[in-house]
Amino acid sequence: MKRRSCGSFKSPFNDQASSQKKTAMSDPDVLRSEIQKLVDRTKTVQKDIDNLKNSGHDVTELKKHMDMMHQYNEIKDVGQMVLGRISELDGVRTRDLYSEYGLDIND
Fold it and tell me: What's the whole-model pTM score?
């Protein structure tokens, strides 16, 4: 089998910006600066977490709300599938079924 030439293909992984970034990241001053930015960001996030805890929020509460949102979304998806199937069988738009079943189109 004969191989084709790809012409002057240039890999995006070998571009100048990428090599400059690699060079910059090997510079100890640049690394120190990046580490300091991460440390500062970590402190800011920890302060936000502490503020939320101090105002009465709890991590377990967040987990519960997330689980409830997942359950709600799954139920809503099933409802949408049922409406879609009914609209196919009746030959109408799904949108038209909302008023028939007392549903809010914006929900």
Answer: 0.47
